[in-house]
Amino acid sequence: MNLSDRSSISAISAGRRRGTTAAAVAALAAAGLLATAVAPAAEAAPALPSTATTAAVAAPDIPLANVKAHLNQLSSIAANNGGNRAHGRPGYKASIDYVKGKLDAAGFTTSIQQFTSSGATGYNLIADWPGGDPNQIVFAGAHLDSVTSGAGINDNGSGSAGILETALAVSRAQYKPAKHLRFAWWGAEELGLIGSKYYVSNLPTAERSKISGYLNFDMIGSPNPGYFVYDDDPTIEKTFKDYFAGLGVATEIETEGDGRSDHAAFKNVGIPVGGLFTGASRTKTAAQAQKWGGTSGQAFDRCYHSSCDSTANINDTALDRNSDAAAHAIWTLSAGSTQPPGGDTYENTADVSIPDNGTAVTSTVNVSGRTGNAPAALQVGVDIVHTYRGDLVIDLVAPDGTAYRLKNSSSSDSADNVQTTYTVNASSEAANGAWKLKVQDIAAQDTGYINAFRLTF
Ligand code: DTR
Ligand code: CA
Ligand code: ZN
Ligand code: ZN
């Protein structure tokens, strides 16, 4: 686009920004920029940004070696403290001190909540990452205690180490999500979800309402693993399932029943919950072995609540995948509805030739990893190089096929090129999926091509 075109479009847009006047509407119509509805209308806006921003901020890979290093530390702690990390035993407090030390060094605001159970002092460790909307808290938790019979490396060193390394990744990235991040390591889960129940029961109602979701990670590295996703909050569930689908890993709904871990206390007060699980004493079926590998007819974790729940009782692939899935969910769910300045842009810059007076062509942008629907002000960047743009009819087609008319043809619009950004109310459309820009040249002689198609959420 040359400067004069851009200035003419931006002048029109500026007119619209100050409130649409009749003259502005006429000018928009003349420029073919006033969308008429095939579906909710689109409005013209300033010209296409010259450089697109990147897509949604993706979570970093969580290094398996780092997660396993935490497990080795927890194993040593058990070995040096009577062989376990159980509630009321020195190995549990030593575990709390280890995790707290890592988080304090990484810049988290930590606090220890004490409680008494079965005549012994218990401890919950709460860690807040400074920043984000304090009224929208994405909360990830895992119980840190083991049973008395062993070190509890899978149950639940795996979940504890997975979210610890995710928290440290937040610090390394200096991640600044729209929502506030909180992590917790619970005490006395094995005695009956005592620590998490104590936390929630002592959380004022106003504080509970600030938690937009609680994610639970209890046993995420079972040696004969299954890939189970809690079927509670649908958005959280979908976030996890989409991640595993991206890996080509099938998942199943976790069916061992509610109330079996620390998400129960949150669910019972109406907080959306979700989580991951790789299985305990139940037996893997032949069908499950077919899709996940491993051994059918054998428990997902033969050392569940046993002394053999050691560092040898871990499947590295499961631990790695679930740690990465935890990070993906935490990053995705905390991005919030208020996108960082500039928003998340998805683009297709492949040239698509537009047949003269011919059939419609499309350029596709695949959106994934987002939660919920598209915004009411979806920015649709169109960059078409074409003489006599009046020949062109342009639609945005949502993943479900709904068409939003961006531009009608106009026999009086002899200007060249369509290089502008339309605003479309796409709030009734799911955000994820294949979005298409559909362009048709309906008059003979002038020709051109789609140069770029961009969506900014
Ligand atoms: N209660 C957990 C293990 C456990 C058993 N079933 C589920 C289902 C979902 C999460 C965890 C579990 C424990 O022994 O710590
Ligand atoms: Ca990883
Ligand atoms: Zn257990
Ligand atoms: Zn557990």
From TrEMBL:
Domain P/Homo B: 338-457
InterPro entries: Galactose-bd-like_sf, M28_fam, M28_SGAP-like, P_dom, Peptidase_M28, TAT_signal
Leader sequence segment: 1-41
Keywords, sorted A to Z: Hydrolase, Metal-binding, Protease, Signal, Zinc
Top-level taxon of origin: Bacteria
PROSITE patterns: P_HOMO_B, TAT
Protein family per UniProt: Belongs to the peptidase M28 family. M28A subfamily.
Protein name as it appears in the record: M28 family metallopeptidase
Originating species: Streptomyces lichenis
